[in-house]
Amino acid sequence: MPKTIIPFGPQHPVLPEPLHLKLTVEDEIIVEVFPALGFVHRGLEGLVIHKDFQQMIQVVERVCGICSMIHAMCYCQGIEELMEIEVPPRAKMLRIIWSELHRIQSHLLWLGLFADSFGFESLFMQFWKIREKILDVNEATTGNRVIVSVNLIGGVRRDLSAEQIKWILSNLCWVEEEIGRLESTLMSDYTVKKRTAGKGVLPREKAFELGAVGPTARASGITQDLRMLGYSAFDWLDFQPVVETDGDCYARSRVRFREVLGSIDLVRQAVSKMPGGEIRTKAKGRPEGETCTRIEQPRGELLYYIKANGSKNLERLRIRTPTFANIPALLSILPGMWLSDVPVVVLSIDPCISCTER
Amino acid sequence: MFKMTPNIIHNLFHQKATRRYPRVVRPAFENVRGALFNDVAKCTFCGTCEVKCPSQCITVDKTAGLWIYDPFACVFCGICADICPSESLHQQSEYRLPLAGRETIMLKGEPKHKTEKTAKLMKEINDDTKD
């Protein structure tokens, strides 16, 4: 049968964001994939010319809505390194709490969307019901639901009271209980297994060669999680990365599911080891020099390159997001697959196009 | 069937996960970054909020005593309310309701002249406008 070219996206029911894949198909089996990006490019990196380095916090938060807190945290860490500011320990812990809450809500959002990609609507609704609780926690503690805007150069803008901490913990208990109810569905359901197990296998060597990051790499057996480096206050917490070895879509969903539980545990640890004291240090002066900051986002490694020349505006800002790193891996696993499996496999790397196109 | 029965029983005897919005609205949390309000009586029209705002949604006319705010450009980050020196800006815990058209909020107040120089300048401007 002659080859047919089928466009997948930029508008597609399973894709919340515009990613275009030109699929060359032979008998419903994919033989070649060609990606196209740039539908929502906003030029946020170029905004450093117009916004001063403090206003840029609000700009980088909008690189990605789902992991806004982690983008701002990475940016602030970079600027703090340049300005040689020591962040108070309490602020570091508070940053960890909010970043882990962001990871939980991001993974729950993905688990829901993933269930939706293979048509499991009720599982999708159950995961999003749980996610709503985390958003409520964000709203009550930071003031906003998704783009929380709590980071500041030199610390954080809000503190947690003892009652709030207690309330967060009780909500996390509820979340853990509810997730536990869904565990058997996601981990051992026949339908889920049939649609995801053995689909889109990314072998360990291939993942390493193509530079896959985050849960995509960890599902292929690569023990790589930047939280192991102990940035912010992670070195005070007991952390073990979640690793699976199968490398298929099913393994990726298991990694994310177990990471939700891991993040709940990290929040509990952070709360129990919460030091007292100030939540911010006054930032004096302007940044000068260049730095590279790496941080673990829900989707993988996030890299910020900042170059400053001592003026109000930064000279250069470069953001390397995890989806950008995972797209080569996605392109390598698609050939040889059935056309009907494409939505599930594309979603399994958790593509965040707004991140990729900045 | 055996798998589903506990779920059905659970659903029969438990509260619904959803609420009938907009008839039933969850009460707002404290300190939520909702609609931005300016208490013009307190405002000194210093223009700090205009300078610090990351989305340029506030314009302050120091001479005329005008505080202009575009709620559609606002990103509700709360920076202006945090740094306001006269504490006239504050965010309510309720969100602004949706509107059919675009609107700009313009508040007029009496600018406080701190120095003689500013007062003199203001007088000159006022005299000019009178003519």
Order of strands, main sheet of chain B, comes to 2-3-5
Count of β-strands of chain B:
5
Rg of Cα set of chain B: 24 Å
Record the strand order, biggest sheet of chain A. 1-2-3
Structural class of chain A: alpha+beta
Q: In which range does the helix fraction of chain A lie?
A: 40-55%
Helix content of chain B: 25-40%
**CATH homologous superfamily of chain A, by name?**
Cytochrome-c3 Hydrogenase, chain B
Distance between the termini of chain B: 88 Å
Mean pLDDT of chain B: 78
Query: What portion of the residues of chain A fall into strands of 2 or more residues?
Result: 5-15%
The oligomerization state is: heterodimer
Give the chain pair forming the largest contact, with residue counts.
A-B, 17 and 16 residues
How many distinct domains of chain B? 1
Helix/strand order of chain B: HEHEEHEEH
Q: How many DSSP helices of chain B?
A: 4
Shape label of chain B: elongated
Task: Draw up the topology in text.
The complex is a heterodimer of chains A (358) and B (131).
Chain A: E1 4-8, E2 20-26, E3 29-36, H1 56-61, H2 68-83, H3 89-117, H4 121-142, E4 151-152, E5 155-156, H5 162-188, H6 190-196, H7 204-209, H8 214-219, H9 249-272, E6 288-297, E7 300-309, E8 314-320, H10 322-333, H11 342-348, H12 353-357
Antiparallel strand pairs in A: 1-2, 2-3, 4-5, 6-7, 7-8
Chain B: H1 4-13, E1 36-38, H2 48-52, E2 58-61, E3 66-69, H3 79-83, E4 89-91, E5 105-108, H4 116-130
Antiparallel strand pairs in B: 1-4, 2-3, 3-5
